[in-house]
Amino acid sequence: MAIDEALFKAVSAGTSLPTLRFYTWEPPAVSVGYFQNSLREVDLSVCREMGIDVVRRLTGGRAVLHDRELTYSIISPDNSFNFPDNILGTYKIISSCLVSGLNSIGLNALLTPSVRKAGRDSPSACFTSPSHYEITIDGKKLVGSAQRRGEGAFLQHGSILMEFNREKLEKVLHKTGGIDSVTSTSEHSKIDIATLTTSLVKGFERGLGVSFSEGGLTDEEVALSQQCRNKRYSRPEWNFRRPSDTN
Amino acid sequence: MDFPKELKYHKEHCWVKVEGNRALIGITEHAQEELGDIVYVELPERGSETEQDESFGTVESAKAISELFAPVSGHVVDINDDLADQPELINDDPYESGWMIEIEMSDTSELKNLLTADQYKKYIEEEKG
């Protein structure tokens, strides 16, 4: 999360190139949306027992369990490549890239143009309600994504479920309505993380008409992510409180 | 789409209603439409300061968090507390009950950087391409 924020800041400031990033979580973690209260959404004692971290995201949406999944993040200036200066247009392009990558390895993923409102009384789990241009297989949600916009750039990140452990999710989150409409790659195909990552990179290259060069973080990005970690993600007052609680 | 003539507009899609050195601020009809249904709003505290073109808050809508950029600098004298429980007021009534903050301006000359209703309308048409 700290690295995603650091990249968002650096791309906004024009000091970093647009970036596509893939990562997994060790230990597993629950991330909650910017406006969520993790004390209300997550069973913290279960998380402690199971060795699961809890972190609040900079982006919106609902809680996600990052365990046996692949997280993508894409950070870019507004209006670069084909990205329009709006939320849904950006979602649509990124989702199309992901679908293209998933289709190339035989996963029958589709874009779902649903318009369900994300209300405050809706279930906790991000995965339990298909929203605008999200990605489904046989009508079940495979990818949950969230976005932040500001300072002339956007950050979108999301979780691609590789194995779905219903029991674990029900233990960890207080509210998991709609849990039957969730799927994972393992239900359809035996794909490892490396193959999935490579196919998604190619999906983005085709969809955006670019070619990515692989690289690590720059020194500036490392320093910035350390700052973000110290300021937010390592602090209980960030992870366990939402903006309206601190005002 | 409605852009009241008596308001001034910032390129980051906030409107400003000026009364003396006070400025009432909200987001435009165009902005609320682009954002979709707003579910949460984060506003600054009373007594805090805003700076022109700098972020003063965020809204969550359609699963994105979008930053709000201040059209003028100054001292936050009031915030719309109703938005905490009724963020939909921003969608339903962006120029009246969906107002966000009131600022005591520290530099009224900044107002010259803002657009008229006609200029703003033209600006968003160009932005859409």
Characterise the protein shown here.
The complex is a heterodimer of chains A (247) and B (129). Chain A has 247 residues and is of the alpha+beta class. Chain A has helices at residues 2-13, 38-41, 44-50, 87-104, 166-172, 193-208, 219-233, 236-239, 243-246; strands spanning 19-23, 29-32, 53-56, 64-66, 69-77, 109-112, 134-137, 140-150, 153-161. In chain A, the strands form 2 sheets. Chain A has a 6-stranded antiparallel β-sheet, with helices on both faces. Chain A is 35% helix and 21% strand. The model of chain A is unreliable at 116-121 (pLDDT under 50). Chain A is globular and about 45 Å long. Chain A has a single domain (2-190, 200-237), classed as Bira Bifunctional Protein, Domain 2 (BirA Bifunctional Protein, domain 2). With 129 residues, chain B is of the alpha+beta class. Chain B has one domain: OB fold (Dihydrolipoamide Acetyltransferase, E2P) (Beta Barrel), CATH 2.40.50.100. Chain B is globular, with a radius of gyration of 13 Å. The relative contact order of chain B is 0.25. The A-B interface holds A 33-35, 58-61, 85-88, 91, 117-120, 131-132, 145-151, 243-244, 247 and B 34-37, 39-40, 42-43, 45, 55, 58, 60-67, 69, 84, 127.
TL;DR?
By secondary structure, chain A is α+β, with helices and mostly antiparallel strands. Chain A is 35% helix and 21% strand.
Q: Please identify the top-level CATH class of chain B.
A: Mainly Beta
Largest sheet of chain A: 6 strands, antiparallel
What is the helix content of chain B?
10-25%
Main structural class of chain A? alpha+beta
